[in-house]
């Protein structure tokens, strides 16, 4: 069953169209990147899925029903604004969240301890949240969103505030959730996480969908660039629509950046050169990164390299 289905979703605040006719779906086991610059409408969409705010129009279906308390036990959510009760211990906090998700306290405690161990916080299980560092508290909050082994896991900017080691732990946890069949949606401004993790991604700009598809499909939106050292006749190869010369490389060789006709692969160009005796000394393909696609489609506001 499709875990999350969003159809023609629109949210208007006074004078602001935060989400504009948005449609997408996420399947079990999928890792879905929800990307967009600041103010694109990501958090607003996630809040509507959680029934924290209501849509102006459109439809949301979570595990086959409209969002409400009935399906909250099957959802895990890490909010963008972190915040836990500072006087509670780490393990009690996780158990508390587990109980809110209708879990048995014993099971919540067992899973909570296992999560804290995996997050390298086993020895801090009885520390108060207020005595922990910000990153540690964030990992406890992440554990709260995972304790019920949700079928839909939504993480709003989960990587921000974590050091590289803990970012790695989080990536591992996202993959683990997906392997057990959960649909995972996460928002981020850091494209490398999306590049490493996502099966599919959606790019939002000012509440509107600019792209939805796989990473390969996203990268194919921008032309592949090829750096070559070649003779000038490279410009006449079928499929090459531009050859920008940079430096001389001596003895009649020149550095070029080739622009290819859309749909032409770099292999075709290389084969053509070989077949027609066109001299090529260096041939480096540069496929567009997700960062470049993002900047092209969404603008560079709010993107970190
Ligand atoms: N409660 C609200 N009242 C009025 N406007 C709101 C409210 N919540 C969000 N907005 C507006 O809706 C738009 C989308 O905001 P949202 O928080 O969903 O963006 P976001 O993609 O999560 O951004 P960021 O990456 O900066 O967290 C913004 O223009 C924001 O000011």
From TrEMBL:
UniProt cross-references to InterPro entries, sorted A to Z: AAA+_ATPase, ABC_transporter-like_ATP-bd, ABC_transporter-like_CS, ABC_transporter_ATP-binding, DrrA1/2-like_C, P-loop_NTPase
SMART domains per record: AAA (SM00382)
Stored Gene3D superfamilies: P-loop containing nucleotide triphosphate hydrolases (3.40.50.300)
Membrane-spanning parts: none
MF (Gene Ontology): ATP binding; ATP hydrolysis activity
Occurrences of domain ABC transporter (ranges): 4-231
Key word ATP-binding present: yes
Domain of life, per lineage: Bacteria
Keywords for the protein's UniProt record, in alphabetical order: ATP-binding, Nodulation, Nucleotide-binding, Transport
Family as reported in the entry's similarity comment: Belongs to the ABC transporter superfamily.
Name the record gives this protein: ATP-binding cassette domain-containing protein
């Amino acid at each position: 069953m499709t875990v999350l289905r969003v159809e023609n979703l629109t949210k208007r605040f006074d004078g602001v169209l935060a989400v504009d006719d948005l449609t997408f779906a996420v399947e079990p086991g999928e890792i879905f990147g929800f990307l967009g610059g600041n103010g694109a409408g990501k958090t607003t969409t996630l809040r509507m899925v959680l029934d924290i705010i209501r849509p102006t129009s459109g439809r949301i279906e979570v595990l086959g029903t409209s969002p409400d308390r009935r399906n909250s036990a099957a959802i895990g959510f890490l909010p963008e604004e972190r915040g836990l009760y500072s006087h509670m211990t780490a393990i009690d906090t996780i158990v508390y969240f587990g109980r809110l998700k209708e879990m048995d306290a014993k099971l919540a405690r067992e899973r909570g301890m296992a999560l804290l161990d995996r997050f390298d916080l086993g020895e801090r299980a009885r520390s108060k949240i207020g005595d922990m560092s910000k990153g540690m508290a964030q990992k406890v909050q992440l554990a709260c969103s995972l304790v019920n082994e949700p079928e839909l896991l939504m993480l709003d900017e989960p990587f921000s505030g974590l050091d590289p080691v803990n970012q790695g732990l989080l990536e591992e946890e996202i993959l683990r959730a997906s392997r057990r069949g959960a649909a995972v949606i996460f928002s981020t401004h850091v494209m490398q996480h999306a590049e490493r993790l996502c099966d599919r991604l959606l790019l939002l700009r000012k509440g509107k969908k600019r792209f939805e598809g796989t990473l390969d499909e996203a990268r194919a939106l921008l032309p592949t660039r090829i750096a070559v050292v070649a003779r000038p006749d490279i410009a006449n190869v079928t499929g090459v629509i531009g050859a920008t010369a940079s430096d001389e490389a001596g003895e009649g060789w020149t550095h070029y950046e080739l622009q290819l006709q859309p749909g032409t692969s770099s292999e075709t160009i290389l084969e053509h050169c070989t077949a027609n005796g066109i001299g090529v000394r260096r041939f480096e393909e540069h496929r567009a990164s997700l960062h470049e696609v993002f900047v092209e489609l969404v603008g560079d506001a709010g993107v970190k390299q």
